[in-house]
Amino acid sequence: MDITTLTLRIDDDRLADLHRRLGETRWPTEDPRAEEDWGLPQPVARELAAYWADGFDWRAQEERINAVPQFTAPIDGHELHFFHQHSDREDATPLLLLHGWPGSSTEFLPMLDALTDPPEDQPAFEVIVPSLPGFGMGGAAPGWDADRVAAALATLMRGLGYSRYWVHAYDFGAIIARKLAITAPEEVAMLHLTQVLQGEQLTRETADPDDAWEQKALAAGEHYAWQLMGYAMVQSTRPEALAYGLSDSPVGLLGWLVDVQRVWAATPDALDRDEMLTTVSLYWFGNTIASSIRYYRSGAGEWGAEQADCPVPVAIAAMPDDFGIPVRRLVEKHNDVRRWRVLERGGHFAGWEQPELMVAELRDARTELGG
Fold first, then answer.
1. Mind listing the pLDDT tens digit for each residue in 212-251?
2. Whole-number percent of the chain with pLDDT over 70
3. How, if at all, do strands 188-193 and 125-130 pair?
4. Which of 6, 61, 246, 282 could form a disulfide with 136 if both were Cys (CB 3.0 to 4.6 A apart)?
5. Are 34 and 41 in contact (CB under 8 A)?
6. In degrees rounded to 5, what are phi and psi of residue 313?
């Protein structure tokens, strides 16, 4: 496999264009009835846009990103971007980290040093973090879907020389991870997931009234259905209608992505402002918002559908403040669950919100379950 070293560098003229567009934003009229559950509040959007234009240091973020070895490899007609941080430990377990939407591969970077260089009495990992094609740094990827990404990741791991590895994932990454396990069951040793499509959804009739976790999952699911899933309805039916505005307006893109990041996290301030704007900037400079939301249209038929049996063992690390809380008896219908843990805190973006907790969980899981 022909692997090329990459250094991220956005030209000055593209930065200037972003700043010009931010300065020329035509803001919507305000409505006194608009509250947090209407979408990103305009005062928050204005503050973030002003900071993005005049305070946010993109060059510092580039330096942070470039501190981790990153590469591209031509796979299935696409230059697949990935970070690859080695461990000095000979017993290190290869670990593939998969992000979701609206995230990017950079959200895992704070975890890498601890995973690859742990204390001597803790397991070490050899970490590969791909940018999913069409997301963030992944480059625009017309025509891609979750099945195609899973096949590409299997090719990547073989090309890197890994014949057996773990996969940690959430959100779209978790969907792709299960497909990867089905594609390469002899190579994927363990799936470590914070979310998983269950097929059957909890209802007030099926949730156990005496099980506090099921009642929590039911409440989270109802809140998502009634308050949070508007984005998914648009993206899974009319993605092109949305893509024009988000591809042309940085504030439009900020409003769409940051709203989701804030309400899916455990609290609105759980994610670092600079890291949120780094993710938005990667979608902006890569012009990848359209290709990322098209995944919802191409995968719409799988939402709520019966799931295929997963042929490899699964470990679940459930986040207590996620909108998609897994229920063990439903997950076990199609997954061989070897470990089930509920972390102390954290929302949808598990490793991004709680990197230290997730590192500890991965170490504990590896110690308990082996390679």
1. 999 999 999 999 999 999 999 999 999 999 999 999 999 9
2. 98
3. unpaired
4. 282
5. yes
6. -65, 155
pTM of this structure? 0.96
Work out whether strand 125-130 and strand 93-98 pair parallel, antiparallel, or are unpaired.
parallel
Measured at the alpha carbon of residue 63, what is the angle toward residues 61 and 64, in degrees to the nearest 5?
A: 65
Asked if 157 and 84 count as a contact pair (C-beta separation under 8 A), the reply is no
Spatial CA neighbour of 333 closest among 198, 208, 202, 180: 198
Q: Which of 94, 159, 101, 158 is nearest to 129 (CA)?
A: 94
Residue 208's alpha-carbon distances to 151, 196, 214, in angstroms, are 38, 20, 6
Give the chain's end-to-end CA distance (angstroms, integer).
26
Domains along the sequence of the chain with CATH: 4-26+33-369 (3.40.50.1820)
Tokens of 8: 């991220």
> Quick check: 262 and 40 in contact, CB under 8 A?
yes
Gap between the Cα atoms of 125 and 164, Å rounded:
12
Task: Enumerate residues 6+ apart whose C-beta is below 8 A from 310.
Answer: 178, 181, 182, 191, 334, 335, 336
Amino acid in the structure at residue 159 = G
Task: Give φ, ψ of 2 to 5 degrees.
Answer: -85, 105
DSSP assignment of 69-101: -EEEEEETTEEEEEEEE--S-TTPEEEEEE--T
Give the whole-angstrom CA distance, residue 45 versus residue 140.
26
324: phi then psi, degrees, rounded to nearest 5? -110, 85
